[in-house]
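Pasting as-is:
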Amino acid sequence: MEVVNAIGRRKAAIARVFVSEGTGKITINKRELDNYFPSTILQYVVNQPLNKLGVAEKYDIKINLNGGGYKGQAEAARLGIARALVKINPEDKAALRAEGFMTRDPRVVERKKPGQPKARKRFQFSKR
């Protein structure tokens, strides 16, 4: 099997995912998964699609992550892994979609408007 690639995005984070046959090693920006994400919750988020399909020990995954915070990066990696697994085996798509791993979360930061301190906040109104 050749290398299968996919892109996952969340908020400002972008994950480029490369999946190849192997032993279940996940490398993010040339670091181990548990080194890059010390939090077990974020490690669990990244592994969710693999655990759902029961193929955690079947593929080696290399991820290039940039932008965003650690939560957004973990969810971007999850989406990228899910998309790559569907490219490998299209029958898995229904199972991953049922868990919500195939949906790109569209929520992003609202832009700041001119003449206001933030996106929705207004300067204090003075009657006189």
